[in-house]
Amino acid sequence: MIHVYLDDLRPCPQGFVPARSADECVLLLQECEVGVLSLDFDLGWGEPDGLQVVRYMVAAERFPKEIYIHTSSDSGRSTMYQMLYQSKPDYVKLVNSPMPYDILQQIANNVKE
Fold first, then answer.
1. Using CA atoms, how far apart are residues 74 and 20, in angstroms rounded to an integer?
2. For the domain 2-112, what is the CATH code?
3. Which of left, alpha, beta for 28 (phi over 0: left; psi -120 to 50: alpha)?
């Protein structure tokens, strides 16, 4: 199981696999079991955004166990959250904010062990 951090600019937290584009993130979701996914919305001028990843998850019914939305785009956050909330299975934890520090630390510590 892997944890994926979708963002074109921010540094990837320890214990996560970076996805720098929507296409990279979709490929990881297709090929791997994803435990935690953290989503950005804006992924570069003229590039597909985080909503493309959300649309893929909904259409393919392929969801990680936990989804956090860390984007600074209020409209992007709202759109992604609403689409995920309406479509996700009950077992998926959906959080409309960045990952709390304790979750980041727990994942980073599991990598060190």
1. 20
2. 3.40.50.2300
3. alpha
Q: What is the pTM of this model?
A: 0.95
> What was the pLDDT predicted at 29?
98
- The full set of domain ranges for the chain reads 2-112
Contact 101, 10 (CB under 8 A): no
Grouping H, G, I as helix, E, B as strand and the rest as coil, residue 39 is strand
Whether 39 shows a pLDDT value over 90: the answer reads yes
User: Using an 8 Å Cβ cutoff, are 11 and 46 in contact?
Assistant: no
Q: In whole angstroms, give the CA distance from residue 76 to residue 16.
A: 22
**Cα–Cα distance for residue pair 79/106, rounded to 1 Å:** 29
Burial class (CB within 10 angstroms; exposed 0-12, middle 13-18, buried 19+) of 87? middle
